[in-house]
Amino acid sequence: MSKFPGGNGADIELLAGGPIPEVRFASDPHGGTEAMWFYIRLEETAPDPATQTKVRLTWVYFDTVPGATELPSCLPVCLVAGQSWTRLKQGEETRTPDGRRQLSWSIPHPAPFVEIAFCFPYGPPDMDAVLDRSKDYWQAAPIGLSQAGRRIIRLHNAVGVPGGTQPGIYIVARQHAGETPGSWVLDGFLRHWAQIRKGAYVIWTVPLVDIDGVMLGHYGNGAYPYDLNRAWGKPAMRHEAGVIRHDVERWKARCRPMLALDLHAPGACERDGVYAYVAKDQSGAIAAEETKWCNVLQHELQTEFAAPEFRRGQSSPSNPETPDFASTMRTEMGVPALTLEIPYSHVATTVLTQKSYREIGRRLALAILRRHG
Question: Which of the listed CATH numbers 3.40.50.720, 3.40.50.2300, 1.10.1660.10, 3.40.630.10 matches domain 124-372?
C-alpha cells in the first residue's frame, strides 16, 4: 500500500494465508474526533494473474464510523488502473468474537494498482480541469494561505466593482476535507455556468477550503483544536476561516449579495437525499429569503435528488464563540445562507455517480437562474 496526496489509511495488515490475500485497514483520524473518510492505493510489484485475481479488503473499526447504520448505503468507490471510478457492491459485515464490526469487499487484484475511497476523490487537479474546460470563464486567484502554508484558491467569474449592484453568490466546499460530494456538486454548478456563460452575476467560490486536509487525507470533521466549520468567530479560530472572511468582505463590497452556500456531506449511510439547514430563528427577512431559496432549490432538484424534508433547522451549536460559516454570513454579513448536505452514495434507492453529483450542481444553477435569471 503506497502513500500519495490525499491518501488516508492506517493500521494496515496484509494476510496471505487464506484463499485470497486480505488487506485490513482503518480510517486514520488525523487528530480529529471522527474517522470516516479513507482513500487507499494497493500496488502489486510482481503480479501473478494465474494465481491471484481478487483481494479481500476489510475496513476495521467500522462500529466507530459516524452514521454507519445501513450497510447497503455504504458503497465505496474503486479505480482499477486504466479504467474509471465505479462503485463497489455491498460489503459483507462480520463481527469479532467480542462484537466489533468490520466490513469487507472483494476487489480486483492490484495489477499494477487499484485505488479505493469512501467516495469519489476530488482534489486540485479536478479543480484545474474545471478551469481548463471553462475557456477563461472562471478565473483563479490565491486569497491567502492555509495553516500549513498552502495557497487557498478562490474561483470567480467576475470581480465586480466597489459599490456594485450585480447579484452576488458566495460558495464554499470542503470545510471537512473528506466530504467530496460537495466538490462534485460544485463542479457541476461551475461547469453549467461556464457553458451558458451567463453574465450579470458576481460568483465567488472556494472549492477546497481545508486544502491541508484534502492533501493530507484528513476527514476533517471535529479536528482538534477547532473544527473549521466552528471557527468563524472574531477572531477566527482557524487561519483558513480568517482568510475567507476577508474575501467575503471584499465580495460583499463589490456586488449585491444574494445567497451563500456551504456544501457538505452528512452521516456515512444517510440516503434521504439533498437537504438544507437554515437559520435557527425563523423570523425576519433573512429567514424568509432562506425559505424562498429552499423552495426553489427543492423544486428544481425534485424527488429525484431532494430529501422529502428538504428545509431543516440549523444544525450547528448555538455557542456564539464557535459560529459556523452559514451563521456568520447571516448575522455578520446580512446574507441568506444555506448549508447543503449531499449524500455519499444514495438518494433513496438511486446510487449516485459523478454524473449524478454534477447534475445536482447543474440544477442548483438552474434554480438560481429561475429565481433571479
Answer: 3.40.630.10
Alpha-carbon gap, residue 159 to 192, rounded angstroms: 19
pTM: 0.95
Q: Is 98 helix (H, G, I), strand (E, B) or coil?
A: coil
Query: pLDDT per residue over 304-340, tens digit each?
Result: 999 999 999 875 554 667 899 999 999 999 999 999 9
Conformational region of residue 209, where left means phi above 0, alpha means psi within -120 to 50, and beta covers everything else: alpha
In this structure, which topology does domain 10-117 adopt according to CATH?
A: Immunoglobulin-like (2.60.40)
pLDDT tens, position by position, 112-131 = 899 999 999 999 999 999 99
Place of cell 479481500: 56
Strands ordered across the beta sheet of 39-43 = 39-43, 113-117, 77-80, 86-87
Amino acid (1-letter code) at residue 27: S
Would strands 86-87 and 77-80 be described as parallel, antiparallel, or unpaired? antiparallel
> Which candidate, 168, 161, 159, places its Cα nearest to that of 139?
159
